[in-house]
């Protein structure tokens, strides 16, 4: 189970809307100036995600919850997203190379196969996303923000 803490935005009718921050380790490394990952992280505008998770327990905005998702579902989805276009690219490029004996045809086949593999992955992911085992679940709930008081 892969776990991550999130903050509750709202809760209505058994559904909690939670806000997850994307964490990167780019501020703790000594080679920050020459790191390619740091540059790629700066390019992406989205640094947080908001998702809806079922919760029978009433939650308050600002409350922390621990979310979990099965490792198998995460690995399978990553395999689907990355390998489908790659396999499509190689197979269709090979077929076009054999049929037309041309590098230009192989290039066109590679592009068609990559796009086709992406579309196949997109179609399968829509079906897989509806499975209950692939959904994040709330593992534990923290105290509401106004419950904890420190007396001096």
Summarize the SSE layout with pairings:
Layout: E1 2-12, E2 15-21, H1 36-43, E3 48-54, E4 64-69, H2 71-100, H3 103-128, E5 137-141
Antiparallel strand pairs: 1-2, 1-4, 2-3, 4-5
Report a brief summary of the structure.
This protein is an alpha+beta fold and 152 residues long.
Count of separate structural domains? 1
Strand line-up of the largest beta sheet: 3-2-1-4-5
Distance between the termini: 39 Å
What is the total tally of β strands? 5
* Helix and strand pattern: EEHEEHHE
Poorly predicted tracts of residues: none
Mean pLDDT: 84
Oligomer: single chain
General shape: elongated
DSSP strand content: 15-25%
Characterize the biggest β-sheet.
5 strands, antiparallel
Overall SS class? alpha+beta
Give the helix proportion (percent range).
40-55%
Radius of gyration over all CA atoms, rounded: 22 Å
The number of distinct helices, counting runs of at least 4 residues, comes to 3
